[in-house]
Amino acid sequence: MAHTCRGTISLHGALIHTVDSCTFVISNGGTQTFHIKAANEVERQSWVTALELAKAKAIRAMESDEEEEDNTANTIPSEELNLVVRELTVRLENLKTCYDLITKHGAALQRALSELETGDDLANKTKIVSERATLFRISSNAMINACSDYLQTAQTQGHKWSKMLQHERDQKLHLEEMVEQLARQHSHLEQAATRHRPNAATSASDDEDNEFYDAQEEGGSVTQEDSSFILNIPVTTHHNHRRNSNDATGSSSEGEDGNSETQQVLVVAENLDNMDVTDRISVHSSQALTPTLANQSKVVRKRRTRVPDKPNYPLNLWSIIKNCIGKDLSKIPMPVNFNEPLSMLQRLTEDFEYSEILDKAAQAKDTCEQLAYVTAFTVSSYSTTSNRTGKPFNPLLGETYECDRTDDLGWRCINEQVSHHPPMAAQYCEGRGWRCWQEFTMTSKFRGKYIQIVPLGYAHVEFPATGNRYTWRKVTTTVHNIIVGKLWVDNHGDMEIFGERNAKGVKCHLKYLPYSYFTRDTQRRVKGVVMDSSNQVKWVVNGTWDSKIEIAPVTSTSGSTENPVYKTGNYKTA
């Protein structure tokens, strides 16, 4: 509206209404109002209709112009960007050409001036100097114009790019503030719920959690539905299963190379109702190990049963890890109250909490049964990870930790931190008829919503009485809800346990099922089979990694070679 005549009204803001059959009014809602009278009612209606259509068109044109301005301010098409770069390149070449001309004509002008001072024929030389000066002035003007054009283009595009950059920064800050505010509100809600929730509600909530994960009762037996399952077993062609533990690209759930085919097997349990409670108790008691202490009258050291409760300090994780997405977990600085009051060496020693399973394995006469107990022991190391969301402290380089439980549990263990970056620990433990060692290292990545921990080292257990040795690698652990929500841990992946030395050829394929909201199967479930050197399934392993593991021998085989069906005997708790 910069060049409009007096008495004009912008259509996109005009108000149009009729007064009578021949008169209508147009106003801008303020100072200007036009009363227009037509010859008849038909002419008035034609004018009103035409003005309404023109008003709608003006409004659409204005909105499209605003959208185009917004899009131009926020995004630059690739064609326009290339055009700007080419234009700046051309202008830069013009500047270089002008610079060369100025240098050339300036040198010629200096030579002409020096000749003017020393020679004769002043009129001719004065004319030459004048021509040189004119060329120099023309080149200088061209240089000035080229600089002006380049500067104008750069300023125009630079302003647009600065506006885009500022827009992106504002969007990023706005997103960070929203996520931080959401995390803070969630933390306040959790604290308020903790303060106002009675003890009865707390216990009821714990019971609901147990029901949600379908945890089985202590000492109970597996149901007919849970004891029957389908498992895909990789068909192996060779036994070169060892990998370099420093290979960060290898999956922690893989135990051998070259597994390109799988075999599907069906495990079916016998009817467990024929076995009464007394028989079950006798089976479990016959499998239990009676510890033989060197001195029964020796006073056993009284040990604490739990560590002090963790202080409930509010923790804003987003402010700490918002710039650490994709980095290794060992290189992310964490506040102290995010850690457990333990070092990583102490946490590794907790793998032997259920060392009595290895004691049972040492007494087993059959190699496949022994491997079934070893498999149950590998699962037992994850028994407390469901409610252990804290991070252990990183040990110092050369730090050691020794735990001697010979007087009550029959084993002793020593650990040492042998590398700081990457963190790596070595462990050795010996018990009643067995010895175990491992080199533990891992790779970890923070993915925004979760942290994934992939172990890389191998663990070994050996039974000197039989010369059997077994090797495995731990599965992947994932910590969910890092930013918002309650932290929870899941273990998932495939584990291969291989026999070595006298147990060579015997192996176990174990599968940790990942947590899923869309399955009716028991959560945190683990299932697997133990096979002899001829790839025949001899034992079945079934249970959950946070509750209990049960094993059962295979009594009969049916079905085809590609899809066999294995019928098992009675399950017993490992």
What does this structure look like?
Its main location: membrane. InterPro entries: OSBP_sf, Oxysterol-bd, Oxysterol-bd_CS, PH-like_dom_sf, PH_domain. GO terms for molecular function: sterol binding. This is Oxysterol-binding protein. The chain has 10 helices and 22 strands. It is of the alpha+beta class and about 575 residues long. Mean pLDDT is about 75; it is low at about 200-220, about 235-260 and about 275-295. It has helices spanning about 40-75, 80-120, 120-195, 200-210, 225, 275-285, 320, 345-350, 355-365, 365-380, and strands at about 15-20, 25, 35, 230-235, 260-270, 340-345, 390-395, 400-405, 410-420, 425-430, 435-445, 450-455, 460-465, 470, 475-480, 490-500, 505-510, 525-530, 535-545, 550-560, 565-570, 570-574. Helix content is about 35%, strand content about 25%. The strands form 3 sheets. The protein has a 6-stranded antiparallel barrel with strand order 11-12-15-16-14-13.
Topology:
Blueprint (H helix, E strand, L loop, with lengths): L14 E4 L4 E5 L5 E5 L3 H34 L3 H41 L3 H75 L2 H14 L11 H4 L1 E7 L25 E9 L7 H11 L30 H4 L17 E5 H6 L6 H8 L3 H14 L10 E3 L6 E6 L5 E9 L4 E8 L2 E13 L3 E6 L3 E5 L4 E5 L3 E5 L7 E14 L5 E6 L12 E7 L5 E8 L4 E11 L4 E5 L3 E2 L1
Helix pairs in contact: 2-3, 9-10
Number of helices: 10
Low-confidence stretches: 200-222, 237-259, 273-296
Strand order, largest beta sheet: 11-12-15-16-14-13
Mean pLDDT over the full residue set: 76
Percent helix: 25-40%
User: Could you say which structural class the secondary elements and strand pairing correspond to?
Assistant: alpha+beta
Domain PH: 1-56
Main location: membrane
InterPro entries: OSBP_sf, Oxysterol-bd, Oxysterol-bd_CS, PH-like_dom_sf, PH_domain
Family: Belongs to the OSBP family.
